[in-house]
Amino acid sequence: MSSYELFYWPGIQGRGEFVRLVLEDAGADYVDVGRKPDGYKRILAALNGEIGPHVLAPPILRAGDVVLAQTANITRFVGERHGLAPADEPGRLAAATIALTIADLVDEVHDTHHPITVAEAYEKQKPAAAERARAFRDKRLPKYVGYLERNLTGDWLVGGACSYTDLAAFQIVEGLRYAFPRAFAQVSCPKLLALRDRVAARPNIAAYLASDRRLPFNEHGIFRRYPELDSSSET
Amino acid sequence: MSSYELFYWPGIQGRGEFVRLVLEDAGADYVDVGRKPDGYKRILAALNGEIGPHVLAPPILRAGDVVLAQTANITRFVGERHGLAPADEPGRLAAATIALTIADLVDEVHDTHHPITVAEAYEKQKPAAAERARAFRDKRLPKYVGYLERNLTGDWLVGGACSYTDLAAFQIVEGLRYAFPRAFAQVSCPKLLALRDRVAARPNIAAYLASDRRLPFNEHGIFRRYPELDSSSET
Predict the structure, then answer these.
(1) Would strands A30-32 and A4-7 be described as parallel, antiparallel, or unpaired?
(2) Going by C-beta distance under 8 Å and a sequence separation of 6 or more, which residues neighbour residue B13?
(3) Across the interface, which of A55, A90, A139 has its CB nearest the CB of B65?
(4) Could you report the predicted ipTM of this complex, rounded to two decimals?
């Protein structure tokens, strides 16, 4: 039996990808339950309380008798177990703070295409999406990217080594390049882009990105390429 | 010098209230910086990176050389230090999961009055707010309340004692009663209401609620009473 079971929707990177990146970089033994033949059924059973009443939505991780949800909670848990987190308390809590702030950014990216309700498709809420996406591009995107940039006083976001928070920042760059190529190109963040390359070059991450376990982005996940939600030009 | 400094906007309960409830229940020595004469200036300095680059928004807590932000991160930190958290690892991570899920609910409550942008007032985004609030009342509110209810198999959300997560659930009931009195009255949650009363009766919480440190809800915080965003009737 594997050390970890990840419960996440099949077919998309989504929030699950932040967990996968930590598990892959750690070289951890894990099963991506959603991609197994009975996976969808098992996810629904988990959401029905079968592995604990406290998990409401994927991603969910099971590790022995520990069951937890919430992306930044899971990545912290796995990161701290595998040396992908600062060892000192101030650093551990700074990393947790950054990871949760990145989770807020992910929520805001999601809401650019679903500003009204998750119960309806993007196509049913396009006028509000256009408005929310404009506010996101103009105000929120530069704010969050500037925040990550200012935390890069060294090679890594916290302390002297790579942590789960750096892996999350890598995924943010990949996602923003996919979903908002024009708006993201307008934000100067040389340190963040260098961090992205540093993460991509880590052997386990490079192997993962080259594997078929790394799904391409698509318009069912969090980061979606809807050109009408991006800036109208790069300049 | 106090053990804790809380940095949060003055004049509202907001997300800071979740932190105050844990500090108050713990009987901790803390300063609510925002309510001091130079408080607003000190908050702006903190947001300008003065106490660490990793904090982007209040609430922020400083405890010696530890500086952290993100509501559920702070309440977990304080709760675990003061016996207001499960002692075992599965319980600790279940509590963290529930607290972060409550934080998601708080975000969704916020977005009922600010569905498009935080840069503009509610009055500038009322049509989208009406739509988002309807979806919230119909789908999300029952989902989250049902989730809390199903976690109450005993007196407390996790394990056999009160934790920071129970204090957060108390605040959710108070907030929903204020902001969505009609819609919330339509959701059956007897165990959650009993938990609310159990928390309110805790000596330190009762003393806090009777003090002038507990501000009333108002239309500048997260939970706002806009009757047009609530259900049209209780039946």
Answers:
(1) parallel
(2) B20, B171, B175, B214, B215, B217, B221, B222, B223
(3) A90
(4) 0.97
| Rounded percentage of chain B residues whose pLDDT exceeds 90 | 97
From the list A94, A144, A157, which residue is nearest B52 (CB)? Answer: A94
Partners of A53 on chain B (C-beta within 8 Å) are 147, 150-151, 153
Digit-coded pLDDT (tens) for B149-208: 999 999 999 999 999 999 999 999 999 999 999 999 999 999 999 999 999 999 999 999
A-chain residues near B67 (CB < 8 A) = 90, 93-94
Q: For residue B59, is the peptide bond before it cis, meaning its omega torsion is within 30 degrees of 0?
A: yes
CB neighbours of residue B80 within 10 Å: 17
Structure confidence by residue, pLDDT tens digits, A50-74: 999 999 999 999 999 999 999 999 9
| Whether the model pTM is above 0.95 | yes
* Complete DSSP assignment for A141-208: HHHHHHHHHHH-SSSSSSTTS--HHHHHHHHHHHHHHHH-HHHHHTS--HHHHHHHHHHHTSHHHHHH
- DSSP-derived pairing of the beta strands A60-63 and A66-69: antiparallel
Phi, psi of A80 (to 5 degrees): -70, -30
Contacts of A67 in chain B (CB under 8 A): 90, 93-94
Q: Which residues lie below 8 Å from residue B201, measured CB to CB, with a gap of 6+?
A: none
For residues A128 and B110, what is the distance between their CA atoms, to the nearest angstrom? 16
Q: CB contact, 8 Å: A226 with chain B? A: no
Pairing of strands A60-63, B66-69: unpaired
The two tokens of residue B41 are 């200036």
Q: Do B20 and B32 touch, CB atoms closer than 8 A?
A: yes
Residue A72 in 3-state DSSP?
helix
Residues of B within 8 A of A72 (CB-CB) are: 100
Q: How far apart are CA A161 and CA A156, in angstroms?
A: 6
CB spacing of A117 vs B101 below 8 angstroms: no
- Going by C-alpha positions, the residue among A126, A104, A101, A102 that lies closest to residue A114 is A126
Helices (H) and strands (E) in chain A, counts: 10, 4
Please identify among residues 110-139 of chain B the ones whose CB lies closer than 8 Å to any CB of chain A: 111, 115-119, 125, 128, 131-132, 135, 139
**93-112 in chain A: CB under 8 A from chain B:** 93-94, 96-98, 100-101, 104, 107, 111
Residue pair B105/B144 in contact by the 8 Å Cβ criterion: yes
CB contact under 8 A, B117 and A139: yes
